[in-house]
Amino acid sequence: MKIGVWIPSVRRFASNENIRASILQAERLGYDSIWTIDHIIAPTANARQFGLIYDPLIVMALAAGLTERIQIGVSVLVLPYRHGVLTAKMLASLDDLSNGRIILGVGAGWNAVESGILHLPFEERGPMTDEYIRIMKELWTNPKPTFDGAYTTFSDVEFHPLPAQKAGPPIWVGGSSRAALRRTVELGDAWHPINVTPDQLRKGKAELAQLCQRFDRPEPPALTLRIDARLLLDEYPYPEPAHAGHMLVGTPDELVDQLEELREIGVEHFSLEFVGRDFADFQAQIDAFASEVRPRLSE
């Protein structure tokens, strides 16, 4: 079981100092991964939810320079927001410079206003996401890449540097829709839902198994999970999380039980987004989890 933590590159704790401190804290405490989130511009209706927004790939580059061991992921990169060839170049460069520590979570996006500001056809976000994944795989693995798609065509090109990871950064597909599950089996390395219950996870796992038969995939995709978490260290009230849905809440004993249940379902890697009253409390939860919860979890 691998455990990663979200770092505050968006929302109310986001700042230059807090991002750097969180990256170094996670590396020092032995977490397996750190995670950023993607948005580009906040429609006024979503400004409170988004908060201050740092570009996830820039933050990942900072993390690569500040650390030596920890994996560095984005949960998730909205693929239609950046051209597929450009994204392939940026991720390949990041993976090379980090010595193969990048994980690429991907999604099609959900905010129509944000897409419209970027002059993107919101109704085509699914096909664009599929095509951009295929573009990245082609550029990362084929020494003579060619592509002829609905949004991009290229041939007689060279692509360097290649990612340090032989097949490129692993692609974790976010979302729980039928399209996301199909995309996971057809194009992804792992399913990466957010804030789902154990029952929802079981149901999704069963649907993935059926899709594997449909697409003749011999090995199922890995199960990963991004989930809000609140480690109760005192009796004072906490704010509500930024996302709706299931979350991990409780004492260290209770979080051990909740995580073990999810591990038994098959989750291999967690991205925990701790909900704190302020940045100091956020850091205290990451410290306490590392000392009071992590050592008691099954491998």
What's this, in brief?
Helices cover 41% and strands 20% of the residues. By secondary structure, the protein is an alpha/beta fold.
- CATH first level: Alpha Beta
> What is the structural class?
alpha/beta
Number of helices: 10
Q: How many β-strand stretches?
A: 13
What would the principal axes of the Cα set say about the shape? globular
Taking the alpha carbons of the first and last residues, their distance comes to 5 Å
Number of structural units classed as domains: 1
> Major β-sheet, in short?
8 strands, parallel, barrel
* Overall pLDDT: 95
Share of residues in helices = 40-55%
Question: What do these coordinates show?
Answer:
This protein has 299 residues and is of the alpha/beta class. The chain has a single domain, classed as TIM Barrel, CATH 3.20.20. The protein is 41% helix and 20% strand. It has helices at residues 16-29, 47-50, 56-66, 84-97, 112-117, 125-141, 178-187, 198-214, 252-265, 279-293, and strands at residues 2-6, 10-11, 33-36, 52-53, 71-78, 102-107, 147-148, 153-154, 171-174, 190-192, 222-231, 248-250, 267-274. Strands 1-3-5-6-9-10-11-13 form an eight-stranded parallel barrel, surrounded by six helices. Strand 5 (71-78), helix 4 (84-97) and strand 6 form a beta-alpha-beta unit. The radius of gyration is 19 Å and the shape is globular. The termini are close together. The mean pLDDT is 95.
